[in-house]
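Pipeline run #58 for the internal structure catalog. This entry was flagged by the ingest filter as a single-chain record with no existing model, so it goes straight to prediction. Upstream metadata was stripped on purpose; only the residue string is passed forward. Reviewer on rotation: M.T. Logging verbosity set to normal.
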Amino acid sequence: MVPPANRGALCAMRASLTWSVLLVLAGCAQQPLQQEAAPAPDLTSQECSQVGLASWYRGSSRDRASPQDLVAAHRSLPFGTSVQVTAIDTGQSVVVRINDRGPFGRGRVIDLSRAAADQLGIRRDGVARVRLQPIDWTGGACPLQQARAD
């Protein structure tokens, strides 16, 4: 038990401590918590890319895509995956959606629709060396890992 003479000092200490805690909490409440946003995928990074030859084809056996659609065929990427395709010689790029399987020509990594080939400027030559990079890749397992093994 605290003697009566020391009770006042103890109450004053408690009050002081209470005010100190309240001031600290009030200061924290005024400063918003800063959440670090997850870094955006670096699509210029070589971590998740595939380099090879691209060709173009007239249509898809799987999808009712028109020649004006920006679509492509890839051996292993899931259907619906968006991929940035960049022509290495010119630096021109186009984003396509995977909607078919292929290509089956040796050394080819992707078959592009006519519209995608036009945007890259490769339709006349028929083939071009390209770099593929998945658009929605957020790190972790690269969806092109399987493609590299093929």
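catalog note: Strands lie at 50-56, 71-73, 82-87, 93-100, 108-112, 127-134.
catalog note: Confidence is low (pLDDT under 50) at residues 21-25, 28-45.
status: ready for reviewer M.T.
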